[in-house]
Design goal:
Elements: H1 10-23, H2 36-43, H3 47-59, E1 63-66, E2 70-73, E3 78-81, H4 88-94, E4 99-110, H5 113-119, E5 126-136, E6 139-148, H6 158-163, H7 167-173, E7 178-189, H8 192-198, E8 205-215, E9 220-229, E10 233-236
Parallel strand pairs: 3-10
Antiparallel strand pairs: 1-2, 4-5, 5-6, 6-9, 7-8, 8-9
Helix pairs in contact: 1-3, 2-3
Amino acid sequence: MLDRRSPIPLYHQLSQSLLAQITNGHYEPGDTLPPERELTQDFDVSRITVRRAIDELENEGYVRRVQGRGTFVAPPRIQRGILKLTSFSEDIAALGMKPGSELLTLRQEPAQTRVARELGLNEGATVWFVERLRFADSDVIGLNLSYLALPESITLRRSDLEEEPSLWKVLAEKGIVLMESDKVIGAIAAEDWHAELLDVRERTPLLQVEGVAYSGAGQPVEFHQIITRADRYKYHLHVTR
């Protein structure tokens, strides 16, 4: 029951009550939440209150609405630590899911100003550009854009990246092991091309991670931009004082 004497809004109390039922397994991923009319009766609240509660759960990635079908419990968001250098594929595999990748673009191109600066190159130097969609099981999670400063003796082939979902593993097999990275995490709103690739609506909040990965010798190798669905992905940090 909701506490009508509490200063906490009823819609937030309702969303937390539903969330508790999701996290304790009463509703599992893929299950349908009760319809709005049933929730208004069960909790003795207005339909506006119910809609605001569902909006809150949807914005936080716990449920998803499908027009004409109802509100479904979403799969749990993938958690990724930021204190240890791991690849996307390693994180997904550690969670018991199958990492996947769809190669969209592989080419060599002149480094533009930002890319050249991040990789310590002269503007116009040749870099490899790798654009991939990333999957956990069959669900699209994010988009990876990688700019690589590789020795001339190393060539990337489409077959390399179509057979192996981990770019870092492909590089390691060619003798380049990435050992450390700088990262900056921010939020962006989905543009039309993000929406199409990631199966979200335009202006949906997305997480963007930009960073440079270095070899063991401290040489910058990869400048990456990782854009992920905020409803399926989150970063966690443990700190001590």
